[in-house]
């Protein structure tokens, strides 16, 4: 794997189901550097380790997000981002080569993307543990499945580690792969502002739909008003009917698209609430 320049500080967030998996990854990353740990802080749900590995300051945030049975993880997300401030360079989503990508893992992925926004996959690497039991290549293991879809969302960024390998070379290869990914991202990192920008983009899409529907409905209302009002045989019927019809049509069109968007949001929230409660 080709080496690249490394940022002076590398901020990594560990996520996924299975506390033991995440802890094993943290131990591999820290290695013998654990004795040189600069600082440690956090809560039971979120632990921060900061170490010096070669000339690079590495921040490792170990989370329990995907093991929590919650509809909303906003509070936990804020804690994660505060420990990885000003923002994580990479999320390592930890899975196992020993297990199939079953419904609980799929729901954990959806919870992860729902919590941090779909944009988070640009900063995510899928990390497989248990590589010593992998038969064939990781590409064959991923196959044509929902797991492949998730890896593709992460731009193909995935890595395999062996649980029974305590050699420094395994950590070096993992960190090198992460640094290469960070370099390809222009050393940019995930921030809450990027999530809000994505939401704003979705909001702009709704506003454009509203504007379009208002325009079409207003045109239809104006045509109808201009036709119906003259039938009433009142003074200035046509002049009155066109603007009145346009206003009425516009209001109805705008109200309709907003109502549809509101219903979609409610259905989406209900869907995710049902998913999390079934974990």
Short description:
The protein is an alpha/beta fold and 279 residues long. The protein has eight helices and seven strands.
Report mean pLDDT, rounded to a whole number. Answer: 76
Largest sheet features: 7 strands, mixed
Topology as H/E string? EHEEEHEHEHHEHHH
**What structural category do the secondary elements indicate?**
alpha/beta
N-to-C CA distance: 38 Å
Q: Per the principal axes of the C-alpha atoms, what is the gross shape? A: globular
User: What low-confidence regions span 5 or more consecutive residues with pLDDT below 50?
Assistant: 265-279
User: What value does the Rg take, in angstroms?
Assistant: 26 Å
| Beta-strand fraction estimate | 15-25%
Helix content: 40-55%
For the biggest β-sheet, the strand order reads 2-3-4-1-5-6-7
How many helices in DSSP terms? 8
What is the total tally of β strands?
7
Family: Belongs to the TRAFAC class TrmE-Era-EngA-EngB-Septin-like GTPase superfamily. AIG1/Toc34/Toc159-like paraseptin GTPase family. IAN subfamily.
Transmembrane segments: 210-232, 238-263
Protein name: AIG1-type G domain-containing protein
Keywords: GTP-binding, Membrane, Nucleotide-binding, Transmembrane, Transmembrane helix
Describe this structure in words.
The protein is α/β, with parallel strands linked by helices. Helices cover 53% and strands 15% of the residues. The chain has 8 helices and 7 strands, in the order E-H-E-E-E-H-E-H-E-H-H-E-H-H-H. Strands 2-3-4-1-5-6-7 form a 7-stranded mixed β-sheet, with helices on both faces. A hairpin with a 3-residue loop joins strand 2 (39-42) and strand 3 (46-53). Helix 7 (192-231) packs antiparallel against helix 8 (237-277). The two termini are 38 Å apart.
